[in-house]
Amino acid sequence: MMTAILTDIHANREAFEACLAHAERLGATRHVLLGDFVGYGADPGWVVDKVMALVEAGATAVIGNHDLAATGGLRTPMSAPAQRALDWTRAQLTLAQSEFLAALPYEVEDGPLLYVHANAWKPDGFEYIDGVVEAGRSMRATKARITFCGHVHQPAVYHMGINQRVEHFAPIPGSALPLSAARRWLVLPGSCGQPRDGNPAACYALFDEVTGLLTTQRVPYDHPAAAAKVRAAGFAAPGDLSAIGR
Predict the structure, then answer these.
(1) What CATH fold (topology level) applies to the domain 2-233?
(2) Are strands 107-110 and 166-169 parallel, antiparallel or unpaired?
(3) DSSP-assigned states of every residue in 10-45
(4) Is 84 exposed, middle or buried (0-12, 13-18, 19+ CB in 10 A)?
(5) In Å, how far are 146, 153, 190, 210, 219 from 200, measured between CA atoms?
(6) Consecutive H or E run containing 109
(7) Which pLDDT band holds residue 223 (cuts at 50, 70, 90)?
(8) Does pTM top 0.90 for this prediction?
(9) Rounded Cα distance, 93 and 42, in Å
(10) For the residues 225-233, what does the mean pLDDT come to?
């Protein structure tokens, strides 16, 4: 079974549509959505409706910190650009959409796989995995052999052997990587809706559960249109669009 794993869509309809179409062309039959469906982008209602439809069709979804904030459940402060977007977003969501987001779980275990937005040691704390120390902490906090995380907007893969040493590398888009059963793995697919590595192409990952092959993907999309929608919505201050279409 080929699974498309998408995260940090951030209300970016153009990026989400492009990644879903790309994954379908490559044979994906299942979807895992790792949260942050809203925030920053201008199409929160459309994106949440699409996520709801995918979940209804069998997809797995978890909540992100922006989703929690949009429904009033996040107690930690957000950055000024994020808060402006969230204040605008709340007014765009219907009650049904807000209730759907609020009801999403923090993590989902699926056999040897764990799906979570930020990390495995405190899924509701939304601390970042910034390097091998945090990656190791997350892998040691779960029995899952492979953890898929969002929250970090750049693709990365970490692995840990029996010696407990954690190593990191940046995956090559389009190049299949075998996730050996002899190691523990932590995969960050990168952001679908707001990559932050200087490349505006959307990120997602494909995982083949039969072969154990992981392939990260970069998908070009109409990022000028997505940025124009944010400007038209009126909640973006100068600099807020630096990660869209640069």
Answers:
(1) Purple Acid Phosphatase; chain A, domain 2 (3.60.21)
(2) unpaired
(3) TT-HHHHHHHHHHHHHTT--EEEE-S--SSSSS-HH
(4) middle
(5) 27, 11, 12, 31, 9
(6) strand 107-110
(7) very high
(8) yes
(9) 11
(10) 93
